[in-house]
Amino acid sequence: MKALVLEEYNKFVYKEMPEPEIASNEVLIQVKACGICGSDVHGMDGSSGRRIPPLIMGHEASGIIVKKGLDVRNFSEGARVTFDSTIYCGECFYCRQGQINLCDNRRVLGVSPGEYRQHGAFAEYVAVPERILYRMPEGLSFEQAAMVEPVSIAFHAVELTSISLNDTAVVVGAGMIGLLAIQALRVAGCGKIIAVDIDQAKLDLALQLGANEGLRADVVDVPNEVRRLTHNRGADIALEVVGNTAAVNTAISSLRKGGELTLVGNLAPTVEFPLQAVVTRQIAVNGSCSSCGEYPACLDMIADGRINVGILKTHTAPLAEGAAWFERLYNKEPGLMKVILEP
Ligand SMILES: [Zn+2]
Ligand SMILES: [Zn+2]
């Protein structure tokens, strides 16, 4: 089969690779669409340590089952499916209580952090276990289904946050996950959603997708503006979707006393944390990792239009041209959001 292989850091080669063998509990999927994730782009130069070459990346995908193992019961050949980015074991302490995103033996598709190498879906075929499969709703396109993974990450963060009807939410970072979180917060019943970014084009998109306000962190004093918009109190909840000191502090300073912060971004391994402010203002803090069973809800909401992923997909291209698209994303070409590759 043909695959896009990261042969060494910053070097992709589109080449012939052996077709994956399937275990008895696995299916072979003919990949129809696979999105390039920000973590793939960060990983290609070695800086994240999670894409050690040689590797076939790709964990945001959809396709058709073309072969199944003897023990696969609930899916047949020809089924249109998408799948979790995480292969969880189903048997450890965490899996047994439903926290599959925290699985002790988790392997992420298209990732090789050293302990394992799990080839992903930038290929004609990928093998995955039945337990991580999800059926695609009627009418959902392969491209839409390939975008369910980032949607599920946004949903998981929103689900972890205690939201009351009409709450005011601040979302720091209006990239892919931030823009999906804004839509999820709208569905969850927030009254006012304030998007924060330094890129006006992203804020414009945020406003189009349901944010009430878009604040430029490089132009205005965000916490002051948020207080002005919230009876001088501050926001009830905040989502941080960047992952650096400035963004974390902006999110915390924008909250009212007793507010709740959910951290999703994790660009920097450590940040400066305003300990006294968090303690004395009694801010609750959540970390949100990946997603945990939100796929079916997300697929439904993409299918019925409550979550708009189409507007975030800026390009679709053949997998053979993947190397050039990775480079354009790596160079942060303006206007590029989600790029989907088709084998
Ligand atoms: Zn991803
Ligand atoms: Zn497990």
UniProtKB/TrEMBL annotation:
It comes from the Bacteria. Its cofactor is Zn(2+). One of its GO terms (molecular function) is zinc ion binding. Residues 7-341 form the Enoyl reductase (ER) domain. InterPro entries: ADH-like_C (IPR013149), ADH-like_N (IPR013154), ADH_Zn_CS (IPR002328), ER (IPR020843), GroES-like_sf (IPR011032), NAD(P)-bd_dom_sf (IPR036291), Zn_alcohol_dh (IPR050129). Keywords: Metal-binding, Oxidoreductase, Zinc. It holds the Pfam family ADH_N. SMART domains: PKS_ER (SM00829). CDD domains: sugar_DH. Belongs to the zinc-containing alcohol dehydrogenase family. This is Alcohol dehydrogenase GroES domain protein. It comes from Vecturithrix granuli. The lineage of its organism: Bacteria, Candidatus Moduliflexota, Candidatus Vecturitrichia, Candidatus Vecturitrichales, Candidatus Vecturitrichaceae.
